[in-house]
Design a protein that fits this description.
204 residues, mainly beta, Porin, ten-stranded antiparallel sheet, 2 helices, 13% helix
C-alpha cells in the first residue's frame, strides 16, 4: 500500500472513530445492539459492464452508527476500446467492510416530501482479487491473480418498506480513480437492510 493510500485510510479511520464516539452518546433506541443483513446490488452498463452482488452482515453499535462486513462478487466485462486492448470477461471477488452513520433519521421533518426517508453517510473498504492479464498489464507474468484495495466514500437514502426492511440507494466515489480502478465515478448502488429483530418505525 503506497503512502497516499495510507493517508486516506488513516483519515477515514479517524472519521470512523469520531462517528463512533458521537453516535455512542446518542439516546438508545431499539436498533442499538441489533444485527441486519445488507445485500447490495450494483449495475454499470456501457463500454464497461459490471454486475455486482455484495452481501454483508451489519451490527448497530448505536441507533445511528453501524459497522458491517461481507463479501462481494462481480461479473465484469469490457468491450474493445483500443486496438491494443481486446474485449474480455472476468470474475472479481473479495471481502468488504463499511461504516454507516445516519445523518437525518427522517427528511420529512425538514422537507415536504411526505415520506419516512433517512439520509446516511457511508465509507467502505474493499479488496478485490483481479486477473493480472486484464488489470496489471505491466507484470512479470500474466498468469494468476493479485489483490487490489480501495476506499469508497459517499452516502445514500434509506426508505422504510416494512418493520424489518429498508430499501437503500447509495451514491459513492472511488477515492483511487487510477488505472486499476474498477469504477467510473460516481458509483450507484441499490440495496436492502433486513433487520434480524423487529423494530418500531416510529423510532426513526
Amino acid at each position: 500500500m503506497n503512502c497516499s493510500k495510507m493517508k486516506r485510510l488513516s483519515i477515514i479511520l479517524l472519521l470512523v472513530l469520531y462517528l463512533f464516539k458521537a453516535s455512542y452518546a446518542q439516546d438508545p433506541e431499539n436498533l442499538k445492539g441489533g444485527f441486519y443483513l445488507a445485500p447490495d446490488f450494483g449495475l454499470m452498463l456501457g463500454s464497461i459492464n459490471n454486475i455486482e452482488l455484495s452481501p454483508a452482515l451489519g451490527y448497530h453499535i448505536s441507533e445511528r452508527f453501524s459497522l458491517a462486513a461481507g463479501f462481494k462478487y462481480e461479473f465484469y466485462s469490457q468491450t474493445r476500446l483500443y486496438a491494443s486492448q481486446p474485449a474480455f470477461k472476468t470474475h472479481i471477488y473479495g471481502p468488504r467492510a463499511f461504516a454507516r452513520y445516519t445523518l437525518f433519521k427522517n427528511l420529512g421533518d425538514f422537507l415536504p416530501i411526505g415520506m419516512n426517508t433517512a439520509l446516511f453517510a457511508h465509507m467502505e473498504y474493499e479488496s478485490s482479487s483481479l486477473e493480472k492479464k486484464y488489470f496489471q498489464p505491466i507484470s512479470i507474468s500474466d498468469e494468476g491473480r493479485f489483490w487490489y484495495s480501495t476506499i469508497l466514500v459517499g452516502g445514500g437514502f434509506s426508505q422504510d418498506a416494512s418493520e424489518r426492511i429498508k430499501v437503500n440507494v447509495l451514491l459513492l466515489w472511488d477515492t483511487d480513480g487510477g488505472y486499476t480502478s474498477l469504477y467510473n465515478n460516481p458509483i450507484i448502488r441499490f440495496g436492502f437492510q433486513f433487520f434480524l429483530r423487529s423494530r418500531s418505525i416510529d423510532s426513526f
